[in-house]
Amino acid sequence: MSFLKLKNGAVIAFAAAFCLSIVAGFAAPKIAGSADAATGTLSSIEPGPNDARIAYQVAQFLENLQYSLQPLDESMSEKFFDGYLESLDPRRENFLQTDIDEFAHYRTNLDMFTVGGRGRSDLTPAYEIFERFLERFHQHTEYVDQLLKQDRFRFNTDERIMLDRHNAEYPKDITGAEELWQQQLRYEYLQEKVDREFSPTNGGTVLPLPKTADTNITGELTQHYDWTLRYFTNWDGDDVLQAYLNALTHAYDPHTDYLNYQHAQTFKIEMSLSLFGIGAQLSEDNGYCTIESLIPGGPAEKSKQIKAKDRVIAVAQSNQPPVNVVDMDLSKVVELIRGPKDTQVRLTTEEKDNPSSRHVVVMMRDEIKLEDQEAKARLIETPDDHGGTNRIGVISVPSFYAPIDSDAHNYISVDVAKLLKKLEREKVAGIILDMRGNPGGSLEEAIRFTGLFIKDGPVVMARDTDGRVQVDSASEPEVTYSGPLLVLINRFSASAAEIAAAALQDYGRAVVVGDISTHGKGTVQSLNPLDKFIWPATPTATNDPGTLKITIRKFYRVTGASTQLKGVEPDIVLPDVLNYDADIGERALENPLPWDSIRGVDFTKFNLVQPYLADLEEESKARTATNQDFNYIRQDIDEFKKMQADKTATLNEQEALKKRKENAARQTARNEERARRAVPDEKIYEITVENAGDPGLPAPIPLTTTNYTGGSDSNSFAAYFSTNTTSEISNPASPTNQLSKPVISSTIQPDPMLDETEQILQDYVSLLSKSGSLIANQ
Fold first, then answer.
1. How far apart (Å, rounded) are the C-alpha atoms in residues 660 and 187?
2. For 225-283, how does the pLDDT look when each residue is reduced to its tens digit (9 = 90+)?
3. Domains of the chain listed by start with CATH number
4. Catalytic residue among 369, 455, 521, 549, which?
5. Catalytic site residue 506?
6. How far apart are CA 616 and CA 516, in angstroms?
């Protein structure tokens, strides 16, 4: 684990990502540690009273319920062993080959350690391997600290560093490891140095660094490495168990997960878009729990005493004493802050680098609805050739959310239905469903969602481990929207999103547009709480032993083809860098289930796509061939291909600066060209689930903003974009602005994929109107 991986912290996004399941998702395991960073001594971590029984029960579930029905045998033991090592040391830079050789006897015997006992697993391998990792990382940190104190870094050779060490050899001995550590540190140092020498605020100029620069860089790197070690030392038995059992579950497939209590709670929040807490998004910054942002209407915002970038120093429950949370794992801090509705929590906060601002904020927890992660829509209005207007709708479908064991009422199908009805009342000519980045969610919601556009037809088939096939059909009494429909997807559209996109494509109900394919996750998971099987061994045992999310089915399109591995291929492929990234998708994950097919089912096609597809594709190719934003994308594709072929980075400062200047010049030129473009003659109206029932439309969002820069310092758009020193002035006529130069910039960032999809929709509406097939009838 390197400094770069942890530098920016991990934001706790309360609706991060879902996998498909009856209810499903993912929770990434943390990485463990057990050492005293201050004294340099290693401390012992022991399993909790129930951990051996939890591990045994998880293994029993895997052998008997996971889709492949694979026994935990020697071959699975090897995957288990390799996965655990990788979870701790993904860059293969901390363990030595001698360590791997020493632990080799575990590689083919973890099955016996896990299921060989009477209802209890022997977790010795988990802790022996973990403690060795911590020992090596402690050595890693000490060595880096020595280098930062003694070494004078020079970057004038042709040396290069391998960026991807996923399949590299482990260092043979400590000398080999130190060579790797030194090289990685030099790379990190160089990146920090170049960031200071050349950045957007330098206006494209390389600035000489002050004499204090080396001290500042050294201090920052030392701080981050020391915190990373503290991060690992904060691990306890729950954390080790989480990492160890996820190495076991992922030996079966990448979407089967062990969720300890904290991860299981987070998963429920992600699926329900609702939680009980204070309404703050948190991140980690060098051991401090930091307020990333406040959720509108939550207790934190209402208190008027907390703002973004404040640090949380301590957390107290009601009248109990405060708990210091500095250097505490972020998930544990989150658990302390969350709690039942109408209960009191007290946060001790301070401004960053200002301890004198420390104060206590008292709040009552409340239900927090994550409305910014709900479906939402835009109505886009443009003038037509006859003095009137054209209207189309774009609905963002971020995930297939639905409540899990809560009183929340957030269902994606219900929310999208409200938006569809609103757009129809506003007489849109067609609608785009934007499912880019949609990682899935509820299987039931995917079926109901599809039923908004087709009536009484099969949507998806699911095959159990015993070969039985279940056909799930849309059962909505009426189609909510029957007009022209496009679906926009990318490589990150997964699971439930793939079910909906595939069904709408197979029925000929929608034109699917986007990347070369979706993610390719064609499996179904179920949640299995372990509390019914694990009874507390002692009064101090974990109250909740967690949940096993386990793959129990594969799903298939109505044609019989699986989306597993292959995903959904669009009708019209658009240029995108993601099309060339081999590290995205199901194929890039460890131990994915294979692709296959079964007998399809009867269904009635609309035939609303195939007759027009050739014309739509031809028109789209002609536009993207000359569109400037797609020319930029093609340039980025070429650069990406070179980077993937190289897989290394320079350790030469002049070469790094040259590359940085080239990239900045290219981006500046693009910004200048985009700034010269005419403002689109259109109006865009934002529609939310909350205002979808209101009469009329809200005010259109502004398409431009006016910024002001000093007249003597900024003479062009290039200066504006390169210096990034402008600020919005509320009263441009005030005397202080008379010498300022106005700069009109767009508030809408370029989105060529969506822009082209809108053009395809307009072509599609035109073709359908000529044929008289504007409404889908089944």
1. 15
2. 998 898 888 888 999 999 999 999 999 999 999 998 777 777 766 666 566 788 888 88
3. 27-254 (no CATH), 274-369 (2.30.42.10), 376-605 (3.90.226.10), 704-746 (no CATH)
4. 521
5. yes
6. 17
